[in-house]
Structure formats: structure tokens, C-alpha cells
Design a protein that fits this description.
Elements (H helix, E strand, L loop, with lengths): L1 E8 L2 E9 L9 E10 L2 E2 L5 E2 L2 E11 L9 E8 L6 E10 L5 E9 L6
Antiparallel strand pairs: 1-2, 2-7, 3-6, 3-8, 4-5, 8-9
Amino acid sequence: SADLVYTVKEDGVYADIIFENTGNYHLLPKITFGLNRITPQQVTDEGLIIPEKVESLIQEEISSTNPVLPGTKRIFSIFIPVVLEEGQYELLARCDYGKAPIVLRKSFQMEGRNGE
């Protein structure tokens, strides 16, 4: 199992994925983090529909050479140094560990800029 927690600060986004090995085998997970900016669908005054747009801002991979033992947890951390404009964002984490990957998504809304 896994969980994704994050904090937006003025110097960027801090994110942790907490991976728990609930099985009986040693696992070597590979974590992929992503940060997307979401522009929602818009309708102009003339009735033109502009579809939702997803812009990938960053994608990073983290892997471990030390296995996660059965019954234990490991925290994988990333710092994304970015100034976010006002808008909607989505933080993604994919955990590949040998079975069906775990995909986690957290959406958040920025009011103003995180650097101000």
C-alpha cells in the first residue's frame, strides 16, 4: 500500500510517498512523481468550447537499491523547486514494485502564488 502527502511552500512543493510492504517478499519499488497544471474546460462568449488542458510541469523518478522488507514502510521524498501561479494542479505518484502499480493523485488549488 502507499500514501501521498505534500506541502506547498514559498520555495516549492515537498512531497512524500509512504510505501508499505504488506506482502511476504522483499520489494524494490520505483517511484515516479509528476506535477501537472490543469486548465479546466472553458466556454467563450461566442460559445466556443475550449477543452481541458493538462500541462506536465515535472516528472522525476526515485528508486532504491535497498529492499523494503515485509511488514515495513519506506518514505520516498522529493522537493520540486517551482513557483506556482494561481490555478489548479495535480500531484501524481506511481509506485512500481512488481505487481499492478499503485497510482496516487492529489489535486490542489493555488490562490495567488506560492512565492509571495
